[in-house]
Amino acid sequence: EEAFEEVSADDSSEFSYDSDDSTSKAEVMAMGHQLLKKKRRKEDMIDDMYHRYTFNDTDLPVWFAEDERKNNQRQKPVTKEEVQQMKAMFKEINARPIGRIAQAKARKQRRTLRRAEKMRMKANTIADDEDVSEKAKSAAIASLYKQAERAGKRA
User: Fold this and answer.
1) Which is the most buried residue in 74, 75, 80, 140, by most CB within 10 A?
2) Closest to 93 measured CA to CA, from 15, 22, 18
């Protein structure tokens, strides 16, 4: 019987796809956008990541290895403009109201319109009543508007 050796996942990579960093997310989105729009092929993108300095040598002096780590950065296959476009898209998405909030605002607006329509109907019935004097009609309509205003402030 052979037992399997458990190996922990290596999370020390410099480029993480689930990173919270907005620049990393924007770069990944820009790469995905390039792939979707057929601007670049997946194989070309992978091939561009390899160059003559890809393979890490182990027998190097410490000062040289540190210098290489600092100066030999991997080139991302996206431009700064593409990354900025994706960041702008993220900001636009975040600026949109959440669906529940938009629904609540729409409900409130419908309620307000319904109240205004009811008030208008009541004011019309008061104005159409011929048995009441003009002064009493205007006072009744004014109190109706005042009552509706108080109700609107509460809501």
Assistant:
1) 140
2) 22
Task: Note the pLDDT tens digit of each residue in 15-66.
Answer: 444 445 778 888 888 888 888 887 777 777 777 777 666 666 778 888 888 8
Could you give the count of Cα atoms lying within 13 Å of 149 in the half-sphere of its Cβ? 6
Distance, C-alpha 131 to centroid of its chain: 60
Quick one: CA torsion of 66, 72, 74, 75, rounded to 10 degrees? 150
What amino acid occupies position 49? M
Half-sphere exposure of 38 (CA within 13 A, CB side): 0
List, in order, residues 6 or more apart from 74 with CB less than 8 Å away: 14, 15, 49
Whole-model pTM: value is 0.38
